[in-house]
Amino acid sequence: MPFVRSATAFLAVLMTAAAYAQTTGIDPALLAKAKGGDAKSQSLIGEAYLNGFSRNGIFVGQDFAQALFWSRKAAEQNEQVAQFDMGILYLRGLGVEQDYGKAGDWFLKSANQGYPRAQYELAMLFEDGQGRIQSYTLAAEFLEKAAVQGDADSEFALGALYDKGNGVPQDFAKAAIWYGKAAEQGNLFAQFNLGISYFNGQGVARSYSDAYFWLNLAASGNNGTLREEWMKARDKAAANLTPEELSAAQARATAWMADHAAKAKVR
Hints:
two-stranded antiparallel ribbon, single chain, mainly alpha, 1% strand
């Protein structure tokens, strides 16, 4: 994890007039609103510096000092995205010393306003016992809040809790449902787990065709260390299909990838 000097010393520097002078590449009207105390404008600028992107009249690279400066201003006005960004800064030790407790505090503020990404990150802290008590029950509670809003990572993680019976009663059918929702959004781990569910007939009716379809999508999208393992699982499913069934499953996967690529361009 990256590490930087203490937040107190950091903010002392940022509170000078020079900090404002560094905010270049931002639409002057947006910057004026931020300097005038508009929380949404401050949040947009903080988020831009955190992630390094060009949009909404902001053209900047990553600068964690500026991200901290602007996000804190907005977060202290209860702006939920800025509160989430503050949590990320503390979680990863960007511009501040890494502090899971403070990360959790900011995530909680944002999560209580219904922000799904904060609910997911807070759930992960509860699941791992970092900066919070270790509690699968609380993890499941916040994951469900985010999952019902369509957050793919939360849908997958909630499915995993049902799969293992952590924090919720073990329920393979519910696990498959949540895996399916995340898989449809392109979550590779959900696609793999859903494929395994179909291969084993766990929570769903056994279907080697459906198993191959999801395992093929997962393996095709994975360029990491798990790719070979996932390809082997896909090939096991293929071995149970006739040539005609395999061809149909491959065509289905190709169509799915083309459809989702088109949707991504629209976004």
